[in-house]
């Protein structure tokens, strides 16, 4: 049964060519918002906290600071509303899920840039 679900997901879910990114990277996600009949493009720029799942059900979490309040947003990787993802900066972290980043503020909340 699981292989049948995986087969359907691989065959019928459309894939976009998005850049490879991981936890610690700073990315900008451009996505489409519909308000009634109008559509507009909005962006969300922040640090990737985690990537979770596999295949077509993969999601990623982005965190940004809006003033003094931290804002997190979870995006499915194959969301049709995502127009593009820009990789702004590669981060050097030692974990795949950087939940400790939520408690850091100020200069401690900086991530070193990776030399790739």
Automatic annotation (TrEMBL):
Its job: This protein is located at the 30S-50S ribosomal subunit interface and may play a role in the structure and function of the aminoacyl-tRNA binding site.
HAMAP family assigned to the protein according to its UniProt record, in alphabetical order: Ribosomal_bL19 (MF_00402)
Gene label: rplS
Pfam family, one: Ribosomal_L19
Keyword vocabulary terms for this entry: Ribonucleoprotein, Ribosomal protein
UniProt cross-references to NCBIfam families, sorted A to Z: rplS_bact
Keyword Transmembrane: no
GO biological process: translation
GO cellular-component term (any): cytosolic large ribosomal subunit
Key word Ribosomal protein present: yes
GO molecular function, one term: structural constituent of ribosome
Protein name: Large ribosomal subunit protein bL19
Superkingdom of the source species: Bacteria
Protein family (similarity comment): Belongs to the bacterial ribosomal protein bL19 family.
């Amino acid at each position: 049964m699981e292989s049948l679900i995986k087969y359907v997901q691989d065959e019928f879910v459309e894939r976009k060519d998005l850049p490879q990114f991981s936890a610690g990277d700073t990315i900008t996600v451009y996505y489409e918002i519909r308000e009634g009949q109008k559509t507009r493009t909005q962006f969300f720029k922040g640090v990737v906290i985690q990537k979770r799942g596999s295949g077509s059900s993969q999601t990623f979490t982005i965190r940004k600071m809006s003033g003094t309040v931290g804002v997190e947003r979870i995006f499915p990787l194959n969301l049709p509303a995502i127009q593009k993802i820009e990789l702004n900066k590669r981060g050097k972290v030692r974990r795949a899920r950087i939940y400790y980043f939520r408690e850091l503020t100020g200069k401690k909340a900086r991530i070193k840039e990776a030399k790739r």
